[in-house]
Amino acid sequence: MQSRQMGALILMPDFTRLALVASPSERAQDAYESLLKSRNWVSLDQAEAAVVIGGDGFMLQTLHHMLDIDHVVPAFGLNLGTVGFLMNKYRSSRGIEERLAKATQISVSPLRMTAITNSDEEHSVCAINEVSILRETRQTAKLEVSVNGKVRMPELACDGVLVATPAGSTAYNLSANGPILPLSSNMLALTPISPFRPRRWRGAILPDTYEIVFKALESVKRPVLVVADQKEVRDVREVRVKAWPEHRLTLMFDRGQSLEDRIFAEQFMV
């Protein structure tokens, strides 16, 4: 079986050991019970691929869990959530093996975020969509922004700023008027959130080989927090962000409905 990934022809494997996981929502659990009877499933740590039932949030949670247990396998999502940008349409329990055999695989790289708090604690986590630095109180955040060791912005006054991957560029980044990035671009979006000074700065597009460092100015008076997907760290004084290509993740989509197709289509939606 052949498929096309990021412009290169690859051989699609025949998956025999499949894991089935579902969000705790009632709809997802009903679908889980139906699919559970359709074949023999294995645990996630023994699987060659995973069928994930739920929404985008649960898919991100599952991908993070794979990284935590150091067993990353292709994930095929079935949408029973809200948006389902990372998912496929849910259909009956029949034909899941055939859908997997014909699916397109898309590879995405997460971000590595390291945060240092005012109390000198260090937290290092990954983000698949984006890393967001946000003000904690009513006072505007003031941030110094450096790229590859060079200060590019001595003081950015804003509600926050985020770094988005191509996979996450259509999420929070797009809502903050950031650019949509093709999956094959190897770029990151650096997007301000309600910038006050400089007022007209609209962000930057950077190669994903660059490291971006944010330093919170007046971090006690103007406390900031950082959110990496679903992980939050408060009272930070410094945040480092860089792509993490050593931990690439694979999403599977029905033919003609891939994440790359959806990201491209988003650019023409009005």
TrEMBL record:
Signal peptide: none
GN (gene name): ppnK
CC terms in the record's Gene Ontology section: cytoplasm
SUPFAM superfamilies: NAD kinase/diacylglycerol kinase-like
Gene3D superfamilies in the record: Probable inorganic polyphosphate/atp-NAD kinase, domain 1, Probable inorganic polyphosphate/atp-NAD kinase, domain 2
Pfam families: NAD_kinase_C
Sequence intervals crossing the membrane: none
Name of the protein this chain belongs to: NAD kinase
Residues the record lists as binding NAD(+): D56, G57, N129, E130, D159, A167, T170, A171, Y172, N173, L174, S175
Superkingdom, taxonomy of origin: Bacteria
Annotated active site: D56 (proton acceptor)
Keywords: ATP-binding, Cytoplasm, Kinase, NAD, NADP, Nucleotide-binding, Transferase
Organism encoding this protein: Novosphingobium subterraneum
Catalytic activity: NAD(+) + ATP = ADP + NADP(+) + H(+)
Stored InterPro entries: ATP-NAD_kinase_N, ATP-NAD_kinase_PpnK-typ_C, NAD/diacylglycerol_kinase_sf, NADK
GO molecular function terms noted in the UniProt entry: ATP binding; metal ion binding; NAD binding; NAD+ kinase activity
UniProt-annotated location(s): Cytoplasm
